[in-house]
Design goal:
six-stranded mixed β-sheet; alpha/beta; 8 helices; nucleotide-binding; Rossmann fold; 253 residues; single chain; ABC_transporter-like_CS
């Protein structure tokens, strides 16, 4: 991916090749500015790469988008303040090209809210929700579309540590229950190890994959998992690579 600023070309992503297995949980980890969010936008069809392509099964990415295969959860919940949790969760279905009645859209939205544990909050407005609850509504909004793939761009980054841990546990349960493919952008090494089957570590200037680390830890994982020697060993591997990437990025800048 190349951007042009003031007549000068800047290479943001270079020679990047990832294969993500169906039903897998993959995290993108790396220093700020390495292109994680840009890569996620390209994978989700929100931005076209300068060269190269994205394939989702037999489809190109835009065909996959039109077929409703992709759901996106962003850093902020971005709920409509005048709509209830239920109406926010149903909003994307009602906007989609699917011929879905309002009754069916709300049924699917309610089902998604139940999955994320917010069935009892369906009639609450966004200002009545905590940060974690609002982010769960945004996850329900994506789940209600029933996509095959969830792209998540640091969805828990603004939450406090306790709520973030709770959301990670919830997300793991959702992933195991639904069997969806998840691609998760994070700045947190421990979060990446806790959630992932594979962590792709990115370097900067330009953005590229410097390490693809499989995480072979038993599931389901819980708070005690992070205290094991195996968990800490994975953290050490990723932290060492991250430090190398940060130093290399400074040299290349």
């Amino acid at each position: 991916m190349t951007f042009t600023r003031q007549g000068v070309q800047h290479e943001v992503l270079s020679e990047l090749n990832i294969e993500i297995p169906s039903g897998g949980f993959v995290s993108l980890l790396g220093p700020s500015g390495c292109g994680k969010s840009t890569l996620l936008k390209i994978l989700g069809g929100l931005q076209a790469p300068s060269t190269g392509s994205v394939r989702i099964g037999d489809d190109d990415v835009m065909t996959a988008v039109k077929k409703g295969k992709i759901g996106l959860v962003q850093q902020k919940a971005a709920l409509l303040p005048w709509k209830t949790a239920l109406d926010n969760a149903a909003f994307l279905i009602e906007l989609s090209k699917e011929k879905v009645s309002r009754v069916e859209a709300r049924r699917r939205a309610m089902e998604a809210l139940e999955i994320v544990g917010l069935g009892q909050a369906a009639n609450k407005l966004p200002h009545e929700l905590s940060g974690g609850m609002a982010q769960r509504v945004s996850i329900a909004r994506a789940l209600a579309l029933d996509p095959a793939i969830l792209y998540m761009d640091e969805p828990f980054g603004a939450l406090d540590a306790i709520t973030r841990d709770q959301m990670n546990t919830l997300l793991q349960e959702l992933w195991q229950t639904t069997g969806k493919t998840v691609v998760f952008v994070t700045h947190s090494i421990s979060e990446a190890v806790f959630l992932s089957d594979t962590v792709h570590m990115m370097g900067a200037n330009p953005g590229r994959i410097t390490l693809s680390q499989g995480i072979d830890l038993p599931r389901p994982r819980d708070g005690r998992s992070s205290t094991t020697a195996e968990f800490i060993a994975y953290e050490d591997i990723l932290r060492e690579q991250l430090d190398l990437n940060v130093e290399a990025g400074r040299s290349a800048a």
